[in-house]
Design goal:
CATH topology of the largest domain: Helicase, Ruva Protein, domain 3
Strand content: under 5%
Order of helices and strands: HHHHH
Radius of gyration: 25 Å
CATH superfamily of the largest domain: Cytochrome C biogenesis protein
CATH class of the largest domain: Mainly Alpha
Helix content: 55-70%
Largest sheet: none
Structural class: mainly alpha
CATH architecture of the largest domain: Orthogonal Bundle
Shape: elongated
Length: 144
């Protein structure tokens, strides 16, 4: 019974991996120029939905994400560069809207945090192993 439950859960999880990612319905017409359309598609995948947090505005059905897509579409149509569009969105909504926030003093912990945690874990592991080796040596001497 337990194995059947585990297999069923694994099958459901694997089937989720093969499903295409969800896409929100875009109210803006596609660009006739394929390069502009590709730029637009790339840009909407680089902004975080401020309602959903874990989805890009390309995949979110939230009204705010639809507004963001409209804004990005308009700016691409106006000929603004990717940098100008990202700067506008970050200035208006904060760096959190960017999936790749810039490296600056207020984001050092965000960028360096994983490495800092890894360093702490390695130091703790070295300490534990050293202590365990010392205890084994002491135990071996007592047994003699």
């Amino acid at each position: 019974m337990r194995h059947a439950l585990i297999l069923s859960l694994a099958a459901v999880l694997l089937s989720c991996l093969w499903l295409p990612p969800a896409r929100a319905v875009d109210s803006e017409p596609p660009f006739s120029n394929p390069q502009l359309q590709q730029r637009y598609e790339n840009l909407i995948h680089e902004f975080r939905c401020l309602v959903c947090f874990d989805e890009s505005i390309a995949n979110s059905d939230a009204d705010l994400a639809a507004d963001f897509r409209r804004q990005v579409h308009q700016m691409v149509a106006q000929g603004k560069s990717d940098r100008q569009i990202k700067d506008f969105m970050a200035d208006r909504y904060g760096d959190f809207v960017l999936y790749q926030p810039p490296v600056q003093p207020n984001t050092w912990l965000l960028w360096g945090g994983p490495f800092l945690l890894l360093l702490i874990a390695l130091v703790a592991l070295a300490f534990i192993l050293r202590r365990r080796a010392h205890m084994d040596t002491v135990d071996g001497e007592e047994g003699s």
